[in-house]
Amino acid sequence: MRSAVSALPDFPWDSLAEAKAAAQAHPGGAVDLSVGTPVDPVPEPIRAALASVSDIPGYPTTHGTPELRAAAVTALRRRHGVDGIDPAAVLPTIGSKELVAWLPRLLGVGPGETVVIPELAYPTYEVGALLAGASVLRADSLLALGPQRPSMVWLNSPSNPTGKVLGVDHLRKVVEWARARDVVVVSDECYLALGWEGEPVSILHRSVSGGDLTGLLAVHSLSKSANLASYRAGFVTGDPALVASLLEVRKHAGMIVPRPVQEAITVALADDDFLAVQRERYARRRLTLQKALQDNGFRIDDSEAGLYLWATRDEDAWQTVNWLAERGILVAPGTFYGPRGGKHVRVALTATDERVAAAADRLG
Question: What is the reported pLDDT for 290?
Fold first, then answer.
């Protein structure tokens, strides 16, 4: 019996061990900008919400509480101008990564079918397709697909790793193309609230969808906007029929967000102050790192939004990784995200103010 692991690529971050050791050997310790993991405090009201329902012994509902679903609908309208979402079409997820990894299989994609992912993409898009036994096509243009009819298309705006924002016209063309072929479009919108030089738009916004959510799904995470990575807190919404199908499968599989986490999600979605505070932190760190990199001959490409700087010195990505590691700074090579990333590195904004300042000093 063939193991599912044999079909998967090596876990990218394992290959950073040597560079990580070099960075850690720096007299001031390592500044780890290689992974987008939150480092700032979880807001106290969210922590209180988590504790407030910690003494409920029964099973939580897979669909999430009505309050959670209503909070998601309201937050999408208030923060991103998305209306027309049925609360029944909101489904909480155990973070966003598990959904990304299992979504093709949960939607019935299988061998002989194709999943389209961006040319530079979060590695788990590819992993999800491979776990389903499907093939993967990297493409940023519909023309690259030719006569093919894939089963599913992934979009990611703002992009991880590049920070690129897809415009309304581009998004609308993808939706129209997919609808003409009965193809599901899934938009990873985990960084939607972190626009800096561009204004990200949800695929569910009327300017893109025309008010028709058929065949569309949007994936959201609370990890970046409310520092809830350890809580594993996210949700998916969009086409009511697709969400209902996912709900039935997840009920059978026991893929349930813990009840205390559901309460935390509800509070996090209801208060924009948490998001505003976190945005200000990331904006400050972004400017510090951007200047330090540019002063050292780096060019910052795209990076209009999101949690990363897509930087290059027009050399092999691993050469750049090692150059920075010698200075105690750990970053991710662009090759983690696809062949087109061979001359870039991804620099995360997720380090404390002190560590970001240390990185800037070392580059200065």
Answer: 97
